[in-house]
Amino acid sequence: MAFTDVLVNFWPRLLHGLGLTLLLTGVSAVLAAAISLPLAVFRTNASAKAQLPLRVYISFMRGTPLLGQLFLIYYGSGQFRPALQEVGLWTFFRDPFNCAILAFTLNSVAYQIEILRGGLMGVPAGQIEAAKAVGMNRLQAYRRIILPHTYRIAQPALGNEIILLMKGSAVASVITIFDLMGETKTIFAKTFDFSIYLWAAVIYLVLTAVFVRAWRYLEKLLNPHLAGHAPAGALHPVMGMR
Amino acid sequence: MLELFSFGDTGWGDELLAGFGVTVALAAVTLPVGILLGFAVALASMSKNRVLRSIGIGYTTIFRGVPELLTLFTVYNGAALILNQIAKAANPEAGFVELSPFVAGVVSLGLVFGAFSAEVLRGAFQALDKGQIEAGLAVGMRPVHVFHRIKLPQVWRFALPGLGNLWVNLVKDTALVSIISLNDLMRMTSVAVGFTKKPFTFFLVACLAYWAVCALSEVVAAKLEERANRGIRRA
Amino acid sequence: MRLTRRLVNFAAAAAIMTTCGLAGALAEDKVVRIGTEGAYPPFNFIDQSGKLAGFDVDIGLALCEKMKVKCELVAQDWDGIIPALVAGKYDVIIASMFITDERKKVVSFSDPYYIAAMTHVVAKDSDIKEFTDATLAGKTVGAQSSTTQAEYIQKKYPSADIRLYKTQDEANLDMANGRLDVMVGDFLPMYEWTTKSEDGRCCALAGDAITDPAFVGEGVGMAVRQEDNELRQNLNKALADILADGTYKKINDKYFTINVHTMKKD
Fold it and tell me: Which domains, from first to last, does chain B contain?
């Protein structure tokens, strides 16, 4: 049937594109997670003056289109090629994949900082005081009490951010990367068969659905105390609060 | 370097400003379309009718889960085909029904905005105090009045932060229409780059323009929130 | 609700446009809309005052004069240029489009209005002398997407790192800044770029001109919808007229030093 023809003929390319999309999303998300944590701690605790450059950065990343940021890095670096070559950075910027990872990571860091900040501020004050009272130093308090709570609170929002990152990754196709979107465009250019767009949409939806399932499962793992829903008025067995 | 941005035949200032106008126009036209769609879908998702509920949930799942760029391409390439087939079926001698990139942009961004705002509005509706609705009905208000005088003002207050966020995202997403060659700010910037070979300069200016609009929007949204929350006691 | 009113308005507009379209088809002073890319100097580009210009544009306007119709120019992104024609956004594509069998499945072509070849472009200090799949394996090779050049590099150099760009300008940009080792483009625009433009001075044409008919087809033609036979015949007649009465030569000489209709000096 004509509708599935395009899938039958081009599935290797689509699979390759899918792999690239997953790689782009995964690498950017992990890098951003690593970078955003210390920055989020800084953002929550440092003085307003010290935070200013960081806040400007966050505002810029959240206030400008990802496409613009991508063009700025990819084509903009081309404008500075001689300078970059002198510093030896040109080989990095030469590859569109690297430029995309850089743009997506920088973008996601800004959003993740704000999400983690929400998580950090949501840690019950009493627990932080208790940690101090028991004699934990800052690092221990963070490692054992604050960060686990932070990630538990931030986990749904972080999942959202990863999904948005995956959808945003489609713009990588504009700088010659053959991710899922890029392959889709190429296949349409060859065949003028409209159904390829619908199949691409299905693939993205399946990706999202699988990820949401997996993330919800992760949420269950992080919240064992909420499993087997406690009745509405019950007190928490350990914490003594709702 | 400033002459690059001058108005008139040798500078790009007027072209960029025109593109900026298209960007703002696109966002401004999409907003009401998206909000109306959002209301319709939110109400559908909360209805007692199973079919309506599945349509609502299906719609939000699809348009929140598919990349905006893909939605844009699909609408742009496909809608024209479908529209014309309908037109030809109705009247074989029919002339052409145009789907300009602007309309394609409004439709696709509106569909996406509708899906996200449906979720925000649904949350707002579900946060309403049932007691107030019952009281309204008890005093003899008809459901239309209850909606208009009790539900809507509170839904507006609850949904405002979420809708403000979605507006900012909408403004940024309009940049995608440059890829279907609508002459918005991003596209005019690309044209200027093609001529002047100064990508960093021009893309930086474009980003700053978007940044300005988003920052301004956040200020306006904050003011609106302040006004909507007047008289409300906070914990 | 506003939504239903919008639908009624849309239906009314569609009905009006239908009758107007019908009336327009019967009217004497028909408007022919020409679709072109506007990003392919010197054939079609947007000049600094924001208007479409170039060899293709000039030829198109000359043909319209001969056909005694009014012409409108419409700019369209290259990737969508054929779907937009089929959908009816304009009536003819005059945008340096090669006549190929693949494209003939979807549209019809006029007689060729110029002949073209493709060529490789490399940096002036490049050490790539031969162009085969083996010598280009792993190198970055670029072209504009949805073009015969893109087909060529994808078929001939599958082991290379292929890059496809939305416009020729973007490909040129990456060639100039060194991201591409090799670029494949149409002969004339590449010649213009490497000899006349500032950033093109980085690079030079290389290798033999690519004239394989499997890729360059019968030449460059004007595309119309498959059912618009009358328009196609009118275009062919007008083309023959401007070739005969010297209008073509005038436009040709404005841009090139050789006769592009025959690819010979005269």
Answer: 2-228 (1.10.3720.10)
**Rounded Cα–Cα distance for residues C216 and C210 (Å):** 8
Per the structure block, which two tokens stand in for C263? 């690819």
A10 or C9: which carries more pLDDT confidence?
A: A10
Whether A186 sits inside 8 A of C145 (CB atoms) is yes
- Residue that has been written with the tokens 């489609």 in this structure: A170
Task: Residue A205: list chain B partners with CB under 8 A.
Answer: 61-62, 65-66
Q: Tell me how close the Cα of C245 comes to any Cα of chain B, in angstroms.
A: 35
The token duo for A66 is 């990802």
Does the pLDDT at position A1 exceed 50?
A: no
**Are C48 and B98 within 8 A, CB to CB?**
no
Interface residues of chain A, partner chain C, Cβ below 8 Å = 75, 78-79, 81, 90, 94, 96, 174, 176, 185-186, 189, 192
> How crowded is the C-beta side of C215, counted as CA atoms within 13 Å?
21
In a domain, A235, yes or no: no
On the question of pLDDT at B221 being above 60, the answer is yes
Range of the domain at A78: 5-226
Compute the distance between CA of residue C174 and CA of residue C161 in angstroms, rounded to an integer.
14
- pLDDT tens-digit map of B187-200: 889 888 887 888 89
A236 belongs to a structural domain? no
**CB < 8 Å to B167, chain A:** none
Task: State ipTM.
Answer: 0.84
User: CATH number of the domain that A114 lies in?
Assistant: 1.10.3720.10
Q: How far is CA C224 from CA A190, C32, C43, C215, C227, in A?
A: 19, 11, 19, 20, 8
Query: Would you tell me how many other CB atoms lie within 10 Å of the CB of residue A38?
Result: 11
Angle, CA B67 vertex, CA A176 and CA B56 arms, to 5°: 165
Report strand pairing: C70-75 vs C118-123: unpaired
**What one-letter code names the amino acid at B186?**
M
Say whether B74 and A68 touch across the interface (CB within 8 A).
Answer: no
pTM recorded for the entire structure: 0.82
CA C2 from chain centre, in angstroms, equals 42
Q: Looking at the domain assignment, is residue A240 inside a domain?
A: no
- Nearest-angstrom CA–CA distance, C109 and C99: 7
Query: Please, where are the H alpha helices in chain A?
Result: 2-45, 48-63, 66-79, 81-87, 90-94, 96-121, 125-134, 138-141, 147-168, 180-191, 195-222
**H/E element, C94:** strand C92-98
Tokens matching residue B4: 């690059």
Tell if the CB–CB gap between A78 and C179 is shorter than 8 Å.
yes
* Contact between A182 and A19 (Cβ < 8 Å): no
C249-266 burial code (b ≥16 CB/10 A, e <16): eebbeeeeeebbbebeee
pLDDT, tens only, B6-56: 766 667 888 899 999 999 999 999 999 999 999 999 999 988 999 999 999
Note whether C226 and C232 are within 8 A (CB).
Answer: no
| Residue A127 maps to a domain | yes
Six-digit token pair at A33?
A: 């997670």
